[in-house]
Amino acid sequence: MKLLLEERGAEVVITEEVVKAAAGNVSSGKEVMKLLLEKRGADVVITEDVIKAAASSGQEPVLHIIDTHPKMLLSQEKWFAIAQFYNAAKLGNKKKIQSLLEQGVEQDLPNPRKVTPLWIAASNGHIEVVRLLLGTKSVNLNATDVPGRSPIFWAAANGHEEIVRLLLNAGADPTFIDTNGDTALLVSKRHGFQGTPDGAKAIKDMHFNLHDLQLDH
């Protein structure tokens, strides 16, 4: 999008979806949003869904940009908390997660890619954060992202055995098939537990657990 705006900014039709895509861009959201406002600021309307896209993607710099925009419609306080919650889940900051939970932050808001804080924490192997989120009983264990992958998917793929067990014990369904035709079991066989001392035994044990659950469905 950045290249498109730089080369053909005047030709881009500025819809809410375009602004949401800029706000929720995880790799260069700040740069894209700044460019969008510089090139087409008069056409940009900041809606609640735009703010939600930024917050649920952890884009605090984008929220700061939005906060100074003349067409800013909403109070930012709760949205900064949501962004901080997502980033804390991504980085494994248990203390920050606990603090924000005590403040009543919305804890299961999916971003435009349908990734939730539980999803990103499980994917990155942050077991204490996953345990804390599961303890709230308010997160969707089986929420899938755009390609159809639930929190257990990348936890399995990345070899986070204990997180997989936590999710399974909490009732996660390992049988979801993503858009590539893969399941948690298949990706764990392909990628799981690389480089861990007890990798062979761990992945074998997890495969049995996942396989048994799949047979039960």
UniProtKB/TrEMBL annotation:
Entry keyword Transferase: no
SUPFAM superfamilies: Ankyrin repeat
Keyword Repeat: yes
Alphabetized UniProt keyword annotations: ANK repeat, Repeat
Pfam family, one: DUF7104
Per-repeat ranges for ANK: 147-179
Domain of life, source organism: Eukaryota
Protein name: Uncharacterized protein
Organism: Botryotinia calthae
